[in-house]
Write a structure and sequence with these properties.
Layout: H1 2-30, H2 33-62, E1 80-84, H3 95-106, E2 113-117, H4 122-129, E3 136-139, H5 150-161, E4 165-169, H6 172-182, E5 196-198, H7 200-203, E6 214-215, E7 227-228, E8 236-242, E9 245-253, E10 256-261, H8 271-280
Parallel strand pairs: 1-2, 1-3, 3-4, 4-10
Antiparallel strand pairs: 5-6, 5-8, 7-9, 8-9, 9-10
Length: 283
């Protein structure tokens, strides 16, 4: 009985071995083991490559890239600038001060036209905001709080977001206006004499890198108005600051920029602040 069982088991084993040999022979006829491994490896590599390409394509199509409307280069200077001179402005009806700011802006590295506008009404501001030839609007400090219509606020924000630069000059009223338009919470600080130091980290690869390493207060009779760095919006760059107070910063606003120069720059200001105002309109 046991002998028969053993003979049966041996026969089964021999039969299994025969099947295995036949299968191996069949595989060898189709392809050698080396070729089979190589084929599998190539197939896996090809599949991985396709998967990798698919992932790359997917990332490329969804990635957001910032297109530069203007080059950040020291030699760049806008060829057209709008300057607000309306009754809410600190330069309203002050022809000498208006002329001084215009002269400072015109004294850049290349010729530029400075256009005055004196109203913040919807139609007047829209004419400025929709001028595709001008990429910079400058608001001197505000002496009176402007009565801005909701449409006017939207136009200012749209102007900045489409790749333009809105530059505000220093003043506590200016900071209030910026907070109202953009929904920020900028915190003004008491007047300080400085000096204020350039942030090389933030100024790197911008026109600010070519500006003075340090600036003092605006002038004997002028004012320098700072903002708490901790209150700046997310993504803001402080270019000049000291002890947690920034006097020149810029905020990327979609494709454009909102820039603050913390001085009521005029003819009595020192030449350093003149340079900073021209640099601000060049961002």
């Amino acid at each position: 009985m046991q002998s028969a069982w053993r003979r049966g088991g041996a026969a089964a084993a021999v039969a299994a071995l025969v099947v295995l040999i036949l299968n191996v022979g069949l595989i060898q006829k189709v392809t050698s083991p080396v070729d089979l491994v190589s084929s599998v490896s190539k197939s896996s590599s090809s599949s991985s490559s396709i998967s990798s390409n698919a992932k790359t394509t997917s990332l490329d199509t969804t990635k957001v890239t910032w297109g530069k409307l203007r080059p950040e280069h020291p030699a760049y200077y806008p060829n057209s600038i709008y300057l607000f001179t309306g009754r809410e402005s600190s330069v309203y009806a002050k022809h000498n001060e208006i002329h001084a700011i215009r002269s400072i802006l015109k004294n850049g590295p290349s010729p530029t036209d400075v256009h005055n506008f004196n109203s913040l009404r919807v139609s007047a501001l829209r004419a400025v905001a929709w001028d595709k030839a001008a990429h910079v609007v400058v608001f001197p400090s505000f002496a009176e709080y402007p009565d801005l219509h909701m449409i006017s606020k939207t136009d200012i924000k749209s102007y900045a977001s489409t790749g333009n630069n809105v530059v505000f000059m220093g003043g506590f009223g200016t900071l209030d206006v910026m907070n109202e338009i953009f929904g920020w919470q900028l915190m003004p600080v008491t007047y300080q004499e400085g000096p204020f130091y350039r942030s090389d980290r933030n100024a790197h690869n911008t026109v600010m890198a070519t500006m003075p390493s340090m600036v003092s207060k605006s002038a004997t009779g002028g004012g320098t108005f700072g903002v708490r760095v901790k209150s700046l919006p997310a993504g803001a760059r402080s270019y000049y600051d000291s002890l947690g107070d920034s006097v020149l910063f810029a905020v990327r606003y979609d494709l454009g920029m909102v820039t603050y120069v913390g001085s009521d720059v005029d003819s009595s200001s020192n030449a350093e602040w003149h340079k900073l105002l021209r640099a601000a309109v060049s961002l």
